[in-house]
Write a structure and sequence with these properties.
Length: 156
């Protein structure tokens, strides 16, 4: 099963919380309370998000964190890259020279095309959509795709 890690999921929840509070600085403790994610985990993720340039921090008693850019300028792909590294379904889709079979492999081009399609889809979804701030959030297509997958698994 292909799945994003729990920390990436938590980071997205933290970023969505910050997106919904654009006018305020939120400290790690407040973010932990609002998201129900442990304070040490929130602190760890905020450091990663800051290193990746997704959040800015302000020090001091009235300090805290905020998004470094508008939520519609942060894509799901950017979030995944920051926490998990570049998306790669297979070694060959990560780049040339990563697989010892690449010169004789007949399926690598297809995996690379699939990887590019997934990357493109993730790049088209913004944090604003993930946070429910953008009416263009693709709720219906995703529900339709999940139903189709469920039907296909039931028939198999």
């Amino acid at each position: 099963m292909m799945r994003i890690g729990k920390l990436t999921d938590y980071a997205t929840v933290i970023l969505a919380t910050l997106a919904n509070e654009r006018s305020r600085l939120l400290n790690a403790g407040t973010l932990a309370e609002r998201t129900h994610i442990s304070a040490p985990t929130v602190a760890k993720l905020l450091k990663q998000l800051q290193r990746a340039g997704l959040v800015d921090s302000t020090r001091g008693t009235r300090g805290g964190y905020q998004l470094s850019r508008p939520p519609d300028a942060i894509s799901a792909a950017t979030i995944l890259d920051a926490l998990e590294g570049p998306i790669a379904l297979t070694d060959c889709s990560a780049g040339i020279g990563n697989c010892c079979l690449e010169h004789s492999c007949q399926v690598s081009r297809t995996w690379q095309r699939l990887n590019a399609a997934i990357r493109k889809s993730l790049s088209e979804i913004s944090l604003a959509q993930l946070a429910g701030l953008d009416a263009r959030a693709p709720v219906v297509p995703i529900e339709r795709e999940l139903k189709q997958l469920t039907r296909a698994k039931a028939q198999a």
